[in-house]
């Protein structure tokens, strides 16, 4: 089984390093082959909103940068874990960019969710399980809740954890999760 860790190269603090070590050790113990992809503003361009990923090259971004490899690694993994610094209750710009630029993995149509919001239907039959772990040294409760709310609204099938929490809490939560490919919507 393959696991992909995606992190923001620009926010690699001591807290990040502890989280990265914890997750890598957990995944190695579970028998996963772990790949780490680090993003920064230097190796990824922001989405231009051109929809070339649907019109010109369906399923692939038209911008020639590192996103093609990231999207390929995402789709070839069983689980993807985003290690995201929480900044004012939100994703870091680089992690948000990666999530936004995963759009080629969806179809260019809209469907309505049960809550009345819209989303794009899946392009593929299955996707890797997705987990996002927000981290920071001093995250207040309001920022934690905002991060969880935004993340759950953005992706339907994503698990959200906050670090630092006690190590046992993170490990217990990960042990309860399905760490394999899932069908259906993102």
Please give a handful of descriptors for the protein shown:
two-stranded antiparallel ribbon; alpha/beta; 5-stranded parallel β-sheet; globular; 186 residues; 6 helices
At a glance:
β4 (111-112) and β5 form a beta hairpin. This protein is of the alpha/beta class and 186 residues long.
Query: Strands across the major sheet, in which order?
Result: 2-1-3-7-8
The ordered string of helix (H) and strand (E) elements is EHEHHEHEEEEHEHE
Helix content: 25-40%
Strand content: 15-25%
User: Assembly state here?
Assistant: single chain
Q: Helix tally?
A: 6
Specify the structural class.
alpha/beta
- Flag low-confidence runs: none
Mean pLDDT: 92
Write down the overall geometry.
globular
For the termini, the CA-CA separation is 20 Å
Total strands: the figure is 9
Largest sheet properties: 5 strands, parallel
Rg of Cα set: 16 Å
Report on this model:
The protein has 186 residues and is of the alpha/beta class. The chain is built from 6 helices and 9 strands, in the order βαβααβαββββαβαβ. The protein has a 5-stranded parallel sheet, sandwiched between helices. Strands 4-5 form a two-stranded antiparallel sheet. Helix 1 (14-29) links the parallel strand 1 and strand 2. The longest helix is centred in the first third of the chain and has 16 residues, at 14-29. The chain is globular and about 45 Å long. It starts with a strand and ends with a strand. 28% of the residues are buried.
């Amino acid at each position: 089984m393959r696991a992909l860790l995606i992190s923001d190269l620009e926010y690699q603090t001591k807290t990040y390093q502890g989280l990265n070590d914890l997750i890598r050790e957990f995944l190695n113990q579970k028998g996963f082959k772990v790949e780490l992809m680090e993003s920064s503003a230097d190796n990824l361009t922001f989405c231009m909103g051109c929809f070339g990923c649907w019109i010109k090259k369906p399923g692939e971004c038209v911008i020639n940068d590192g996103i093609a490899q990231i999207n390929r690694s995402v789709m070839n993994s069983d689980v993807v874990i985003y290690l995201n610094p929480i900044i004012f209750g939100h994703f870091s710009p680089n992690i948000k960019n990666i999530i936004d630029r995963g759009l080629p993995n969806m179809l260019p149509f809209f469907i309505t969710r049960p809550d009345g919001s819209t989303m794009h239907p899946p392009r593929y039959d299955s996707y890797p399980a997705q987990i996002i772990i927000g981290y920071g040294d001093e995250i207040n409760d309001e920022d934690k809740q905002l991060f969880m709310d935004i993340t759950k609204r953005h992706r339907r099938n994503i698990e959200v954890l906050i670090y630092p929490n006690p190590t046992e809490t993170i490990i217990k939560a990960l042990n309860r999760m399905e760490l394999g490919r899932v069908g259906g919507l993102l």
